[in-house]
Design goal:
Elements (H helix, E strand, L loop, with lengths): L3 E13 L8 H13 L23 E13 L3 E5 L6 H8 L7 E6 L3 E4 L12 H11 L4 H15 L14 H14 L4 E4 L8 H17 L3 E5 L3 H7 L2 E6 L2 E7 H11 L7 E3 L7 E2 L2 E9 L11 E9 L4 E5 L2 E4 L4 E4 L5 E3 L2 E9 L7 E10 L4 E13 L25
Parallel strand pairs: 3-7, 3-8, 5-6, 6-7
Antiparallel strand pairs: 1-2, 1-4, 8-9, 10-12, 11-12, 12-13, 13-18, 14-17, 14-19, 15-16, 15-19, 19-20
Length: 415
């Protein structure tokens, strides 16, 4: 027996923007004849554009997904990641049969439990208890099977006090709690979870992640998980799928896919930003001429020091100025910030330099946010002014170490 739980074979989904009709009766009849009677592809879906939200299109059609092709084995936990509008939720809706693909084939071997948005599958006029039984019946479970799981569902959801209240009275967090408990405990072979866990509180998110681990590792069920929380994706998933503008860009081990996604969000503008005095940013008498990074050679590796260098022009004597760069890694964690102190300076051109010692950074891309200000005024703030990448030394692969920094100057004292 095959151990493949889910198969996507060249799946595409196209939507028409604006009106659904072809605008003429003759075209609507022709569409019905070709698609429903002859069983051929819709002739009015030939024209389409890629799903790029950043640019204005000229066609009435857009491909939400294009030629998605991959398989998921039974017991796999797969994270579907990508920017907003990349096609993640559309992919899960196709799998859950909320909508159908325009082209291609989807095969799912087993019952699917879906939690795609707050209140999915719930009837607002029915109580929480009644919705549990209704959802179980939709999954093909008998009343006795549902009854055997009822206490666990209610206990996990934390909604016992309100279980006989219509769910239209529930908060969004309560609805997600009950919806997740129903999806997890009614034992579907495939569990599909969209970003809805972000609605829950931290305690429930931790419980939900733990339950999904138990469902996949302990019970051998398959989980597809969409989230923008990369820490949750890494903690839960073994495999990752990266979508970009409706196209599957990459598939592979989750750590590599998450790193690829996060690296793609890091600007590649380089380590030096300069301006002339005429177009220099700033304010309050300060004009910023340069935010730069300097180091010896052509490559910045993990055991090499470097300098953050700032040039600016002060338009009057006695201004109090402080510099405060913040350094972030690709997971958007601020590793540290540096404060120069609030110092009065003279009119004219000035250069400030922060010396960063060797052996602090793990290999990877980093961003510097730069700020010029005093306690009395803010002169200049530039998010993402500089980017730099630290390479491995060749002696040690710093990417294999846990932690956001690797302070190699800290040595053990053996006696």
């Amino acid at each position: 027996m095959s151990n493949i739980a889910i198969e996507f074979e060249h799946v595409s989904k196209q939507y028409r923007l604006g009106l659904v009709s072809t605008k003429t009766l003759s075209h609507d009849i022709r569409r019905f004849w070709i698609t429903n009677i002859l069983g051929k592809e819709d002739p009015y879906l030939k024209i389409g554009e890629t799903n790029d939200r950043a640019s204005k299109g000229t066609s009435d059609y857009v491909w939400a997904l294009r030629d998605i092709d991959f398989k998921v084995e039974q017991g796999d936990v797969v994270g579907i990641i990508g920017k907003n509008g990349a096609g993640k939720s559309t992919l899960l809706k196709l799998l859950s049969r909320v909508t159908g693909p325009t082209t291609g084939t989807i095969r799912a071997h087993g019952r699917i439990g879906s939690l795609l948005e707050v209140g999915t599958g719930f009837h607002g006029e029915m109580t929480g208890r009644e919705n549990i039984f209704m959802n179980g019946a939709i999954l093909g479970m008998s009343r006795s099977e549902i009854q055997s799981k009822l206490d666990e569902i209610i206990d996990f959801s934390g909604c016992e006090r309100y279980i006989d209240t219509p769910v239209k009275r529930y908060s969004s967090g309560m609805t997600v709690r009950l919806g997740f408990a129903v999806a997890a405990f009614l034992e579907p072979e495939i569990l599909v979870v969209d970003e809805v866990l972000a609605v829950g509180d931290a305690e429930f998110q931790k419980k939900a992640i733990g339950k999904m681990k138990d469902v996949s590792q302990g019970q051998g069920r398959t989980v597809l998980f969409v989230s923008h929380n990369m820490a949750s994706v890494k903690a839960l998933c073994k495999k990752g799928v990266l979508l970009e503008n409706g196209i599957m860009k990459s598939i592979g081990p989750v750590n590599l896919i998450v790193d690829e996604y996060l690296s793609g969000n890091m600007d590649v503008g380089g380590g030096d930003r300069t301006w002339t005095l005429d177009n220099a940013p700033g304010g309050g008498g300060i004009k910023v001429l340069r935010c730069g990074i300097e180091y010896e050679g052509t490559e910045l590796n993990a055991d090499k020091p470097f300098d953050l260098v700032y040039e600016f022009y002060c338009e009057q004597d006695g201004l109090s100025v402080g510099l405060n760069p913040h350094i972030y890694n690709q997971q958007e964690v601020c590793l540290f910030n540096i404060w120069s102190g609030d110092k009065p300076i003279s009119k004219g051109h000035h250069v400030a330099r922060f010396h960063i010692p060797a052996g602090i950074f793990c290999a990877g891309p980093y961003r510097v946010d730069n700020m010029f200000y005093s306690h009395a005024a803010e002169y200049f703030t530039h998010q993402g002014a500089n980017y730099f990448t630290v390479e491995n030394t060749g002696k040690l692969d710093f990417s294999n170490y846990l932690g956001v920094i690797y302070p190699s100057m800290i040595k053990a004292d053996y006696k």
